[in-house]
Task: inverse folding
């Protein structure tokens, strides 16, 4: 009898260990897959930014669209319904909601703190273990996911061999060292791509052999946007302070990074033909308080 009881006890301990191990593994898997689904949803939601603000070089979240996209993405991947989870906290940190970066965020309901250096979306979601794996105890877990638009603050060194002319009396240098040839001026014209009569908000600079040649800033400033904008193609936008902004569009390559401090002599890209373009050239704009002016007024 004693032997039998001993065997039963050993079996009980073994089974209990297996169950405990299974529960730990299940919890770990639950948290792992929940984290993955949340990260995908946070990424998808963070893509919902204002295109109008983006054209000005700002990352501003469209919060209404982002919330909808987050739910749709999370429910699609997790196969949960709205009643299966709770968005405990959802925060949008951008130039509209944060006075300045870096910003320290501390969650209200859980032990979570993060230093935010640039536009970031943070989501905290609560759901149960049973929501991911059937026949398990309905223990609730809160997981955090975020998506950040990384900025790199540095200075691009001058490129040897690029000869920059002396700034004029208004402090502007010519943006294409290869040529000063203007092929299309500022003002009303028929768009060569769309055929629509509209304002040509800049000056086009081109000549044979200009493709792939360096583009440099017209004056000292900070890169506020570097990437793709429909129509412009690859574009770099620079803030020079005092409401003055310059834009360099249709680039073949972009070397600028958001937050980078640049000066004439730095190379921010190369002349290309991306976006709405019929051939290699630089579309160069100068804006004051957001309004485009004829660049040639500054030269």
Result:
């Amino acid at each position: 009898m004693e032997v039998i009881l001993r065997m039963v006890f050993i079996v009980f301990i073994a089974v209990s260990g297996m169950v405990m191990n299974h529960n730990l593994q299940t919890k770990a898997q639950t948290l792992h897959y929940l984290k993955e689904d949340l990260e995908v949803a946070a990424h998808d939601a963070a893509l919902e930014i204002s295109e109008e603000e983006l054209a000005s070089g700002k990352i501003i979240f469209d919060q209404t669209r982002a919330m909808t996209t987050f739910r749709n993405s999370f429910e699609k991947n997790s196969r949960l319904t709205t009643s299966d989870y709770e968005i405990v906290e959802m925060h949008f940190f951008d130039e509209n909601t944060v006075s300045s970066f870096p910003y320290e965020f501390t969650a209200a309901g859980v032990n979570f703190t993060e230093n935010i250096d640039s536009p970031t979306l943070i989501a905290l979601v609560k759901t149960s273990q049973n929501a991911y794996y059937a026949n398990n105890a309905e223990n609730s877990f809160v997981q955090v996911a975020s998506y950040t638009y990384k900025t790199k603050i540095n200075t691009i060194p001058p490129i040897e061999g690029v000869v920059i002319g002396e700034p004029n009396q208004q402090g502007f240098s010519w943006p294409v060292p290869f040529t000063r040839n203007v092929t299309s001026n500022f003002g009303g014209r028929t768009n060569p791509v769309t055929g629509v009569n509209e304002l040509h908000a800049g000056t086009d600079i081109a000549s044979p052999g200009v493709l792939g040649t360096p583009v440099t800033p017209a004056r000292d400033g900070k890169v506020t946007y570097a990437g793709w904008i429909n129509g412009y193609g690859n574009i770099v936008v620079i803030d020079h302070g005092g409401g003055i902004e310059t834009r360099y569009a249709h680039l073949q390559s972009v070397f600028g990074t958001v937050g980078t401090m640049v000066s004439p002599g730095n190379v921010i890209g190369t002349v290309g033909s991306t976006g709405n373009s019929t051939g290699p050239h630089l579309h160069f704009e100068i804006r004051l308080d957001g309004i485009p002016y004829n660049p040639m007024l500054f030269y």
